[in-house]
Amino acid sequence: MIKKYLTLCACLLMSFSLCAQTETFRLTDFFGGDSTLRLQGKSDNVDIAIPLSAVTDVDNALLRLEVVSSQALIKKRSQLYVRFNNATIGQIAFDPDRPSLVSEMTIPKTLWRPGFNTLTFAVSQHYAEQCVNGNAPELWSEINIYNSTLKLTTSINESEFTLDELSGFFNPGIGGQRAVSLYTAKAPSLEIQQTTLPLVAQALALRNQYQPLSVSHNVFDASYVLPEIDNTQGDYWQQDNVQRFERSAWYLTSKPKQPVHVLVGTAAELSAVLTDELTNEIDGAFLRAQRTPAVIANDKVIVPASYRLIVSGTTEEEVHQAAKALAVMDDALNPISQVTVLSQSEMDAGNVQRHRILAPGQHYTFEDFGISTAQFRNENDFNKRVSFRLPADFYVPENASVKLLLDFAYGAGFGPGSIMNVSVNDELVHGLSLTNTNGQSYRDYQLSIPARYFKGGTNNIDFDITSRAPLAGVPCDDIPGSHLVFQLDNSSGIDLPSAGHVAVQPDLALLSEAAYPFARFKSAPIATINAPSEAFLDSALTLAAKLAQVARAPLLNLQIKIGNNLDTEGSLIVLGTPQTLTQVEQSEFNTAIEASKRWSYRLQNNLYNHVRTLSEDLSFKEMRVDGHTVQESDLGQQAILTAQQHPTATQRETLFIVAAQTPEILHQRIQDLVSLSMWGQLAGDFFAWKDNLSPALVMQVSDKFEVGEADDSWLHLRLWLSNNPWYWLIGFIALVLIVSFVMYTLLKRRNKQVQDAW
Fold it and tell me: Which distant-in-sequence residues (6+ apart) come within 8 Å of 140 by Cβ?
């Protein structure tokens, strides 16, 4: 009796807790700058934001820092302060006799909070007891944030599982899931496999925001077999334990590393893994968050506890409607475990894809796209970044301009060297000296910026403020800058010019930046990821999830098809190996990936455009040689991504091919491709890689073409001519010939008249 009681307690304990996990992160995982953080001047500070999932508790946190300081710094007065959420957790005294050091400090678990936590490094640096030049070059210290680490022991704090906690499990912060398994019945219906599974993958990936999500597909059997239990007194599988087994996630193929998995299918299909009571509750488009118990025998876990999300309905269409609701719903509004969707409106794919994208020809304030008023105090260098998204196919004439109408002010007492610089996508467009000693306020301060500085996708406007105190005029008597204040109001606005919707293809950078051509502004045509067999389905689902993250909205018209028949409508991604790609007509392509490969090597590539920003090779000059090489070889451990015009599409569309030697290698390379470090490096139309660090080769090998329609034919003609500049030359030569012919004819006629007059 006592043993049964202890077993029951163990089951309950396993049901409502998951084992703690210990992970070690580099600080570069949370910092977008260089791997070495330099702090300069007599005082400086840098903040690093560390996100934490809402369902994660930090049980232990150890921060390890590698620090190097200038040997000119004096003891006691030169220090590094480490703060966490504004609470000081450590102080490191700089010692010129020991300029390199390693320090460890514990971050109290009571300081952690859900969302973004701020880790602050602040320094006070002196080379003398007094009369210190605050800008002296010897005032510096460095933190190697690549080698510096944060070691965390975390656990899940949710015993109950409700729909509002989905954004806690699928979260970009520490403790968020980076992989998920979607379970269906064997041989799921065509609609569920083709449209519903990719939509569920997108819905979960959107909650992960920028963190990639690896998606896998598994199937469950139509019935279960009770496992054999050794060394048990009597029959273990009595009614209570059998019912507990039925309520558990017995179908899991292995002990999951991530707590949440998803069941997708109709009520009839899921009846094999759900209790009769739960199956009977499915009446319409159905979403359910559920906690499954653990099954333990002889102190051994037979089936682990888990969280599962059920996406179901009585028909395939209702299952798809449930997936749509999952993709757009705000989790915070559903602090319950179960939802039945009755109806949905405004779910047109085109409307959803335009979410949070600024429309050309409109006026917006910074507040309209979520920017708050910024106020900077004290003497320092400050930055305020304003980010917004334009249509991926944003195209305007060369003489078009974007107007910024800025509302800002600065207080009295600014000294020499106080300035405001404005940059658009890292291009300096304006500077202003803050020279009025009494301060000044501006309303609708207008900047007219050429529209060519802006691009389709995400754009960044940076306001860099340098605040300096006035000079005292007396040696060794600095004026503190605590009185300095600068404010940039979110009532500032931006006027966008009217624009056409045309994009130049193929362009992998545009795919990386805005998911174009799968996400468009004016239309939402059917888009397809083609997998030759179910062995490629995991790769297709992971890629679909990444495209939704880039578009920041679910792509409702994106589908996954199994087989070798290629669609002739919309843009297409074809996954495959050299053997399966023999079914794809590639005779017109500059590169072909088949049993025999056709490569355009650098010296043979007439259109070769080396992406110099990746290699920093500024000395390379284009080789004007045509040709290609046909060879027999395999791809090894690398994968190839190519883009070119779809040869059989009814309209101008883009065909992408992603190939590796085997489906397993392709899945691993897709994981590398969607990683934070690799995805942003996509460029050109030929991309080869074999890890998640840097591409092996990037080239532009295919002819360019235009996709979309301009709002007027004149704009479309200008775009076409700008991408085919030789026609300008031909037109100019033709014009010169015509003018020459006219002049020759007139002169000849005039000469004849003169001769006749003689």
Answer: 38, 39, 40, 69, 70, 125
